[in-house]
Amino acid sequence: MATMESLIGLVNRIQMACTVLGDHGGEGMSLWEALPTVAVVGGQSSGKSSVLESVVGRDFLPRGSGIVTRRPLVLQLHKIERGTEYAEFLHAPRKKFTDFAAVRKEIEDETERLTGSQRQFLTDQFTLAFILLMGQPDSIVEDIEMMVRSYVDKPNCIILAISPANQDIATSDAIKLAREVDPTGERTFGVVTKLDLMDAGTNCLDVLEGRSYKLQHPWVGIVNRSQADINKNVDMMAARRKEQEYFESSPDYGHLAPKMGSVYLAKLLSKHLELVIRQKIPSIIALINKNIDDINAELDRIGRPIGVDGGAQLYTILELCRAFDRVFKEHLDGGRPGGDRIYGVFDHQLPAAMKKLPLDRHLSTSNVRKVVSEADGYQPHLIAPEQGYRRLIDGSLGYFKGPAEASVDAVHFILKELVRKSMAETVELKRFPSLQASIAAASNEALEKFRDESRKTVNRLVEMESTYLTAEFFRKIHESDNNPKDDKHSNAAGPNADRYNDYHFRKIGSNVSAYVGMVCDTLKNTIPKAVVYCQVREARRSLLNLFYAQIGRKEKEQLGKMLDEDPSLMEKREVLAKRLQLYKSARDEIDSVAWK
């Protein structure tokens, strides 16, 4: 089995580490709250500091008249293999104090720094796992009571209730508080001080023997050093011997001598602490394992540390790019929302834009007459106004470039928006704002190139329709025009008269409109194909090719700059890593110590 000293020492180390790393609150029970502590409580000048020094066996607390201890003190002592003790403060966690006069000076200096020359009381604690809680004047009684309760209310807190012997136990501040927070007395140890200062002929046997107020644990009497002893620098070992002599020679307390004094109190507390710690080991291990799992999950969420060599940095960048690319493709392919908006451009926006083209005005009778007449020039057309037809068709098809280019721009806007959304949804990238900016810039540059190529392609599609007309369509029209049954309004006066016949111009406009309608149906199908091929397909296949080429030429320093993180995130990871190491070490130590 583990020794009491090894278990308590382990708990002390965990408590200090938890405090340094800030694990002393939050949701649920923290490791700090799960570990036992001892709170020394009592009224002003009841002897709390002296009792604490006697139990510790060191002289290290400030001395003086009136209110000396003006803030809570959490003390932690470590004993190393050679038997040398040292103290450590939360505000200076890496500084070990082996000179306890220096500990006193540090307490005085830090208190003075925060409170100034005024006799001000602070609720901020020293963490130097003994806890010293003091009484103060009535003006701040309420604040002090709330602060004291914040410690002693916790079920893991062992209460060392200090009452002076020359005070009625019924009015003891410490016992009153202990009764309220620990009505069963399971956590309370009663300590009577100043037995040597009682009036002649009186004693405190009713209290020490449990008749005045019974506790589950035995009462312990303490005789602290006198002010004269302190002035003479009588050390703690000599004071302990003097205290033991007092009890052994006392006619009132001689029969209780083996169970009186600071040495016995320290043993009693240590034995109880060992029992409590052993009882709590399973729950402590369970809590440690839960904290380890939570920290690992959080580290996975914010990202693990990155290697410092160029190869590791390049690998990390490529992995992050792949993660972003996966999210982007999911948007395009339907795994995430957004890609459906591209189909909306082809199914709604493009047809609606084509429907709004001013073809009726362009193919009005007056405009057809004007265009055909200008195309004929001085020589009227002989059979059909072919040049007029071509000009009318060219003019009509030219309008289609607008909707075609608008479709290209609309898809380009959607793709840029999907890049932005994918960047925000790629969790792994959030820790690297510089890399995010670089990937976004390279992606948008690639999309600009895809858009330019797509615009050229759709314009070519329109121009191709103008460049080569479908002759078969017009041959059928010509055959229809030459059929007398189908042309009731034909003028037999010959081609010269056709030039000035309104019906003839309306017929030309109708024929051109039919042909343009046929081309419109074709473009409704080919423009989306061109846009998808030039923009969507390329974005899916090679969005980051430009970026890959760029980073392949970068030096290690440049790669490192791209992986610069938010300082607050780096600090958070460092704290989490320290906590993780703390919990793993604590678990290993508990496993190795608790079952020896």
TrEMBL record:
<protein>
    <recommendedName>
        <fullName>Dynamin-related protein 1C</fullName>
    </recommendedName>
</protein>
<dbReference type="InterPro" id="IPR003130">
    <property type="entry name" value="GED"/>
</dbReference>
<dbReference type="InterPro" id="IPR030381">
    <property type="entry name" value="G_DYNAMIN_dom"/>
</dbReference>
<dbReference type="InterPro" id="IPR001401">
    <property type="entry name" value="Dynamin_GTPase"/>
</dbReference>
<dbReference type="Pfam" id="PF02212">
    <property type="entry name" value="GED"/>
</dbReference>
<dbReference type="InterPro" id="IPR020850">
    <property type="entry name" value="GED_dom"/>
</dbReference>
<feature type="domain" description="GED">
    <location>
        <begin position="505"/>
        <end position="596"/>
    </location>
</feature>
<keyword id="KW-0547">Nucleotide-binding</keyword>
<keyword id="KW-0342">GTP-binding</keyword>
<dbReference type="GO" id="GO:0009524">
    <property type="term" value="C:phragmoplast"/>
</dbReference>
<keyword id="KW-0505">Motor protein</keyword>
<dbReference type="InterPro" id="IPR022812">
    <property type="entry name" value="Dynamin"/>
</dbReference>
<dbReference type="InterPro" id="IPR000375">
    <property type="entry name" value="Dynamin_stalk"/>
</dbReference>
<dbReference type="GO" id="GO:0003924">
    <property type="term" value="F:GTPase activity"/>
</dbReference>
<keyword id="KW-0131">Cell cycle</keyword>
<dbReference type="GO" id="GO:0008017">
    <property type="term" value="F:microtubule binding"/>
</dbReference>
<dbReference type="InterPro" id="IPR045063">
    <property type="entry name" value="Dynamin_N"/>
</dbReference>
<dbReference type="Pfam" id="PF01031">
    <property type="entry name" value="Dynamin_M"/>
</dbReference>
<dbReference type="InterPro" id="IPR027417">
    <property type="entry name" value="P-loop_NTPase"/>
</dbReference>
<feature type="domain" description="Dynamin-type G">
    <location>
        <begin position="32"/>
        <end position="282"/>
    </location>
</feature>
<dbReference type="GO" id="GO:0005874">
    <property type="term" value="C:microtubule"/>
</dbReference>
<dbReference type="GO" id="GO:0016020">
    <property type="term" value="C:membrane"/>
</dbReference>
<dbReference type="GO" id="GO:0005525">
    <property type="term" value="F:GTP binding"/>
</dbReference>
<comment type="similarity">
    <text>Belongs to the TRAFAC class dynamin-like GTPase superfamily. Dynamin/Fzo/YdjA family.</text>
</comment>
<dbReference type="InterPro" id="IPR019762">
    <property type="entry name" value="Dynamin_GTPase_CS"/>
</dbReference>
<dbReference type="GO" id="GO:0051301">
    <property type="term" value="P:cell division"/>
</dbReference>
<keyword id="KW-0132">Cell division</keyword>
<dbReference type="Pfam" id="PF00350">
    <property type="entry name" value="Dynamin_N"/>
</dbReference>
